[in-house]
Amino acid sequence: MTMKEEKIYRQEAVVPDRGLPFKLFRFEGADGKYICEAHQHSCVEIFALREGKVDFYLGDKKYVLPAGKFIIVNSNEVHSIHTSGRNEAIVLQIPMEKQIMRFSGEKKEEDGKLFALLEKMYRQQIRKEYGYELLMQSIFYQLKYLLVTAYRIPEEKKDYYPGNTHSGHLERITGYLREHYAEEISLETLAATFGYCPTYLSKMFRQYGRINYKDYLRSIRFEHALRELEETDLTIGEIALKNGFPNSQAFSRLFREKYGILPTEYQRRQKENDSAAFLMIQIQAESSLLGRL
Questions:
Q1: Cβ contacts of residue 287 below 8 Å, gap of 6+?
Q2: What percent of the chain has pLDDT over 90?
């Protein structure tokens, strides 16, 4: 496939949970029918289905995933999800700053143990008892040890990697943005940091990440800002400045454009334990965004 014929996919920003080296969340097709369009990200993902059935695509290969099974997605591996009935899954995303190793999702005798560790992590996340972060990390490193010892693809099979040189360069740049998201980072500054001209870097984001540079940076900032709204009593202005937005007015305007709701309203709903209602708003907003990409 020539460079002109190469398919491009949306690059998704993944921000770990606060104080933890991973991101863990529940995936649910709320109305029974949901499509997560093809995308990629620089992390290893384990998608474990608790209920229902989904069609999971790795590249062009389709896997029918039943309840009680999981699939492993490697860094920068293109994947998508199609659901047609009620389903619920646990998703664990492990950021990978460097391509050190890759993993196979082929059936193994350790599958039951890995699924059980994911369930255990999920239960602890829901309870959030005092010191739960320590327990979560303890379970996570058990899971990571199992992943490395039982599912790692040997070095001699490195040709398995489906990425490309441009994806590798973009991964280094997005890693930098995830680390410095709260700073004032212009396209020109970022380009100079990595030795590119701004025009070429902007084109790289659009062509190989299928996302605008500003939109990618904002998606990281929004991930952190949402967490501040949920977990702290900081003012909207403080949250805006802490997460790289110029002021509260700009933050509120961009927040409403993305989620269809003001951050003050979201903060109020969180206090009223109305997060489920907002989840639907977020899914609809993301679906709308995907339709424009």
A1: none
A2: 30
Q: Write down the pLDDT at residue 232.
A: 86
Which residues lie below 8 Å from residue 130, measured CB to CB, with a gap of 6+?
none
Cα–Cα distance for residue pair 207/195, rounded to 1 Å:
18
Given a contact cutoff of 8 angstroms between Cβ atoms, the answer to whether 27 and 89 are in contact is yes
pTM, 2 dp = 0.61
All structural domains of the chain, each given as residue ranges with its CATH number in brackets, are 10-160 (2.60.120.10), 168-292 (1.10.10.60)
74 exposure class (CB count in 10 Å sphere: 0-12, 13-18, 19+): buried
What span, in angstroms and rounded, lies between the C-alpha atoms of 254 and 249?
9
Does residue 46 have a pLDDT over 80? yes
The token pair at 214 is: 């500003």
Q: DSSP string of 243-287?
A: TT-S-HHHHHHHHHHHHSS-HHHHHHHHHTT-HHHHHHHHHHHHH
Q: How far apart are CA 258 and CA 293, in angstroms?
A: 14
